[in-house]
Design a protein that fits this description.
InterPro entries: ADH-like_C (IPR013149), ADH-like_N (IPR013154), ADH_Zn_CS (IPR002328), GroES-like_sf (IPR011032), NAD(P)-bd_dom_sf (IPR036291), Zn_alcohol_dh (IPR050129). By secondary structure, the protein is of the alpha/beta class. It is built from eleven helices and 18 strands. The two termini are about 20 Å apart.
């Protein structure tokens, strides 16, 4: 079977690797679609993703597909099932797993390397999807589940003033969830005009630049700030514009070699709460339910549908990922 590898030193290559039969509780899935994640780009650029990166590795983890075989001890799936994957496996036995935080499992590792024609996750990481849900939409399960975890941390009250930074693919998902909290004001900070237009289309009450938000925040107590870009300057500004008793979520993945600074006295006098969000514990089923309900529009977020072979150029240039979500078509089934 074919698989797309990051080999280190800004090198990507599609290789033929051996296919195999699933064993024990494994579910063999013919991958239909896999999303390109920002962490894949981080890995290609020589930085870590959610974990330390040691190439060569198969990229991708946001995948959906159809079950073709199951291991001898698999109880809940059969060939033909349409499924989505949670790529992050926890052992269930360590102290963090027992506390309910599988995202901090000391044995945690990825079990669905989606830039491949087949993946073999254990059945506890596989979720059936309704026939009404398009497989391309289902590939948004993992990023949406991560966004849901961030939202759960904030516990947003209705009628609030919310500012969100960035209308990339994650920001576009986050915005739609924020809209469901019934805010008074939902303001998106985004420099590009076409992305500002998309923000309004997806439910923002206003879209503005990072210069304009300073003036707005001077007149409006911002209750929640969500940064979905991961840049030092936007993270620092997100903390600065937050209002009294505000909650700030630094959701975007930052450069591990770059520190973020803020004025502690300013944060102290406003009694800020600053959050980060790591992975997606217990949110995959909720993500699928939201996708099946139709309240999340994924089609407006997709900027390109590419083959495994075309991903090498995309990782170098980021031509389409700068505009939205890049989807990798494996079987291309729906």
């Amino acid at each position: 079977m074919k698989a797309g590898f990051y080999l280190g030193n800004h090198t990507y290559e599609v290789k033929e690797i051996k296919d195999r039969k699933p064993v024990d509780h494994e579910v063999k899935i013919e991958v239909a679609w896999c999303g390109l994640c920002g962490t894949d780009i981080h890995k290609f650029e020589g930085k870590n993703g959610a974990s330390v990166v040691v190439p060569p590795i198969i990229l991708g983890h946001e995948c959906s597909g159809i079950v073709t075989e199951v291991g001898e001890n698999c109880e809940n799936f059969k060939p033909g099932d349409r499924v989505a994957c949670d790529p992050s496996w926890g052992c269930g036995r360590c102290e963090w797993c027992k506390k309910g935080y599988q995202n901090f499992c000391i044995h945690r590792h990825g079990v669905a390397k989606g830039f491949a024609e087949y993946v073999y996750p254990p059945e506890e990481n596989v979720y059936k999807i309704d026939h009404s849900l398009d497989l391309e939409d289902a590939a948004f399960t993992e990023p949406l589940s991560c966004v849901l975890h961030g939202m759960d941390l904030l516990n947003i009250e209705s009628g609030s003033n919310i500012v969100m930074y960035g209308m990339g693919s994650i920001g576009s998902l986050m915005l739609q969830l924020l809209k469901l909290t019934a805010p008074k004001n939902l303001i998106v900070v985004e420099r590009e005009e076409n992305k500002q237009e998309l923000a309004i289309e997806l439910g923002a009450t206003k879209a503005c630049t990072d210069q304009e938000i300073e003036e707005i925040a001077d007149k409006l107590n911002v209750d929640y700030v969500i940064e979905c870009i991961g840049l030092k300057n936007t993270m620092e500004q997100a903390i600065h514009i937050a209002g009294k008793r505000a909650k700030v979520l630094l959701f975007g993945l930052g450069d591990p070699e770059e520190n973020v600074s803020f004025n502690q006295f300013e944060a102290y006098t406003k009694e800020l709460s600053i959050y980060t969000s790591y992975l997606n514990p217990h949110t995959s089923r909720k993500a699928i339910s939201l996708l099946e309900s139709g309240v999340i529009d994924t089609k407006k977020i997709i900027s390109a549908r590419l083959s495994l072979e075309e991903m090498g150029e995309e990782l170098k240039t980021k031509k389409y990922s700068r505009k939205g979500k890049v989807m990798v078509s494996l079987s291309g089934k729906h």
